[in-house]
Write a structure and sequence with these properties.
The structure is a homodimer. By secondary structure, chain A is α+β, with helices and mostly antiparallel strands. The first copy, chain A, has eleven helices and 13 strands. In chain A, strand 10 and strand 11 form a beta hairpin. In chain A, about 65% of the residues are buried. Chains A and B meet through helix 8, helix 9 and helix 11 of A and helix 8, helix 9 and helix 11 of B.
């Protein structure tokens, strides 16, 4: 039970974070979780530019503190990322900090790289002591298992209540040649916009200076992980990190930033949508597409409020075209909203026209809402502002997962 | 099925809004709902000072527009309140406005009072045409049924997904004599702080000038209905109204304002807690008591964020003393929070001491969390700020109620 599930005879190949040249990864079981891989390692065969965004929660886990320190001390250079699942190492005081630092030290020692070039992340239960000795015992096995095929194992080892791994890849062609941006993520609960939610890791073999990488990541996060919400809660451990090792030989300079940022955004949007679709207990992805707002900021307020509404999320779960709840959520978003000018469509069925005209086939709307992706389109009819957010439906499963006893 | 459920031979008496002298009420079935009383009427035998607070949603129902107009035109004087359940008359355009105005006109005509002295409220499904002709047909029966014993019928007729009526009474003794403040409320979903949530109606036989009544109501709401949250959604129809008819002969002047405001606050806190306890699908009331904040505003931010956290609400449902979720919610409240100084107790069991020391009997904590009221006490250890809020647990029942098809 200690190894990730691989079907016998399955062909293994690079996925997600190991598609870019020069990266390898591993996922093993070290005993923090009972019967699920719980230790992931990502390594670059050379120094990589590194950038990361972290939770904005005032209560931050020990690994966040340590990873921030490393990024500062190394001036944005990293060689590896080590991640455990099953324990958040949050609210664990000085002992927790020491555990995170020891994890970094051991990883650095085994890989033969500077301690400042190892990022550390944790995810799992808050407030319990991390069994760091088990983690340290497992590290040599993780290092030994590092391989191009290990991307899938790493993607498995970072999961908590997730039901599936989340990996994606984009390829960019340039006149200098091609490069890859690939990523993996976990995240199912405690997910809310306005910060880098969940854990996400991206690798690229493009050469990108640390400052450029930071700027691109900040904008890409705004359009991806900061646009999803599962339950309105915000983790103490959120972190999205990118490593760019230049192994492709392609340099992302002033001219090529846009293509790189588009690829990075694409990878992060793929991962963010995968996280929303796999929200705790979710059966559907909900896309909320708001246009016609006074400006983009107003559109985002409305989209986020609709995404966050438990009444909208339960109505979608029930395949009920209850547009009144969508309109009511828009009304409390703190944005400029004129009820009489609103237009609402659900997966292509126009359920409300301006002036509160509502004539549509309930049957058709219901049929479309039974699909595994539901699109809520709201046109405020006031301007050119637009924003898209993603969430999932709210189900018995969410209650089951979160009302169950920790131990 | 058209009449409220009264046990045969039950002794009927004044409750809630009809305990104060000079008030009568009725609750009848007029056919907006299938088999539940759906039309409530409250009347004063003389002119009463009136004050009300309304939803801050940008999308407001027709009755809110009309009730606001009446209060303005009458300069804060009212004789009656008419309320229907089963249909919110929201997002219904000009036809909805006409329906609300017609309800007021008919009520005024039947009672022989000015149209500006009748307040109207609605609660139920958004976006469906109100069958105002049924309401108008039912009004003569409601007027004929007006009685002191009708308070309970009115409390029944305003309910939607509520599982029980919500009524309360406070008595105040003064040197001039005694007076009564009584109230009733409905509300189960779409309940969120920062406005007058749900429908609440309060009557008193004290004499209170309209301006004083408005000021007292505004402060009392801040400490009661603005401190509860069920699901973070905000209705288009929220309204809390108070009528003060002076029938007791006691005048609330500058000297007696405090006693009156305390009684009004007490009534509204009782009703607000009853609403939270009866939240959709709820099995428990959760009281969140935050102290030690830098100031009261910070304490309120933290209390509201904990109250609004689905992860906290599901943990309480599962009787799981998962203090990490409480600390994580506090951390994202936007308040000054030092994780290391926090102390957390759950229904008297101290689960976290400063410095992240956590040693307690899980068994004892679990036993206390199985009770029907759970108190989450958080001491931030930073100052003197304090705030209390109320919410309920999040259960399968919430999903069942809100994922079911409207029709």
């Amino acid at each position: 039970m200690s190894e990730p599930r691989i079907a016998p005879g399955a062909v293994r190949r690079a996925t997600g974070i190991t598609v870019a040249e020069g990266f390898s990864a591993a996922g093993v079981h070290c005993g923090i979780r009972k019967a699920h891989a719980d230790l992931a390692l990502i390594a670059s065969d050379r120094e990589a530019s590194a950038a990361a965004v972290f939770t904005r929660n005032r209560v931050v886990a020990a690994p966040i503190v340590v990873a921030r320190e490393c990024l500062e001390r190394s001036a944005g250079i990293a060689r590896a990322i080590v991640v455990n699942s099953g324990n958040a190492n949050a609210c664990t005081g000085p002992e927790g900090l020491a555990a995170a630092r020891r994890t970094v030290e051991e990883t650095a020692r085994l890989l033969g790289v500077p301690e400042t070039q190892v990022l550390v992340a944790s995810t799992g239960v808050i407030g319990q002591r991390l069994a760091v000795e088990r983690l340290v015992d497992g590290l040599p096995r993780a290092v030994a298992a590092l391989s191009i095929e290990g991307g899938a194992d790493a993607a498995e080892a970072i999961l908590t209540t997730d039901t599936r791994t989340k990996e994606t890849v984009r390829r960019v062609a340039t006149r200098q040649g091609g490069y890859v941006v690939g990523g993996m993520a976990k995240g199912s609960g405690m997910i809310h916009p306005d910060m880098a939610t969940t854990l996400g890791f991206v690798t690229t073999d493009a050469a990108v200076p640390p400052a450029t990488l930071r700027a691109c990541l900040r904008r890409a996060i705004e359009a991806s992980f900061n646009r999803i919400s599962v339950d309105g809660d915000t983790s103490t451990n959120d972190m999205v990190a990118v490593l760019a090792n230049g192994a492709s030989g392609v340099e992302v300079d002033a001219g090529g930033t846009e293509a790189f940022e588009n690829a990075l955004t694409g990878v992060l949007v793929d991962l963010a949508k995968a996280v929303a679709r796999d929200g705790e207990g979710a059966t559907k992805l909900i896309e909320v597409d708001v246009r016609g707002a006074r400006d983009d900021a107003d559109a985002l307020r409305v989209a986020r409020t609709i995404s966050g509404s438990p009444l909208v999320k339960t109505a979608v779960h029930g395949a009920d075209a209850n547009w009144g709840r969508i309109v009511a959520a828009a009304g409390r978003a703190g944005a400029e909203v004129e009820p009489e000018t609103m237009r609402v469509a659900i997966s292509g069925v126009e359920v409300l026209r301006p002036g509160f005209v509502s004539q549509f086939s309930e049957e058709e709307a219901r049929a479309r809402m039974l699909r595994d992706t539901v699109v809520l389109e709201v046109d405020l009819g006031l301007g050119e502002g637009r924003a898209v957010t993603w969430t999932c439906d709210l189900t018995h499963g969410y209650v089951d997962i979160n009302a169950s006893y920790r131990t």
